[in-house]
TrEMBL record:
The lineage of its organism: Bacteria, Pseudomonadati, Pseudomonadota, Magnetococcia, Magnetococcales. It is an enzyme of class 3 (hydrolase). This is Cyclic di-GMP phosphodiesterase. It comes from the Bacteria. It comes from Candidatus Magnetaquiglobus chichijimensis. Keywords: Hydrolase, Phosphoprotein, Two-component regulatory system. The keyword Cell membrane does not apply. The modification 4-aspartylphosphate is found at D55. One of its GO terms (molecular function) is hydrolase activity.
């Protein structure tokens, strides 16, 4: 059986490391793909990516812009914005697009809750 893949997009290497650690210890059956910005994420993603955890504030395109492009390329992908703070207007826009939210710092139980929908 092919592994599910998760795309982790954050300009902070520390934030990516924290998510990587959660997956390595709790969800080792998931393949991890990491990117530091939207352009790199778009170049690395494929149809195998089922989940994208995307930082909102990044250089270049923001998380909502990236989510929109990822969802256009891969309609079955689930996208979650990972952020400490987001304006209400952006929150409403993201919700209307079907994008979820995870507050920083990411908690292991929140990742587990999201992954339950993939089994």
């Amino acid at each position: 059986m092919e592994k599910n893949s998760v795309l982790i997009v954050d300009d902070s290497s520390l934030a990516r490391m924290m998510v990587r650690k959660i997956f390595a210890t709790r969800f080792p059956d998931w393949k991890l793909i990491e990117a530091k910005d939207g352009d790199e994420a778009l170049s690395l993603t494929s149809d195998e990516v089922r989940l994208a955890l995307v930082d909102f504030n990044m250089p270049g395109m923001n998380g909502i812009e990236l989510a929109e492009r990822l969802m256009a390329c891969n309609p079955r992908i689930s996208v979650y914005l990972v952020t400490a703070n987001i304006q209400e207007r952006m929150h409403q826009r993201a919700e209307s697009m079907g994008i979820g939210f995870i507050k920083k710092p990411i908690a292991e139980n929140k990742i587990a809750e999201i992954l339950r929908s993939f089994v």
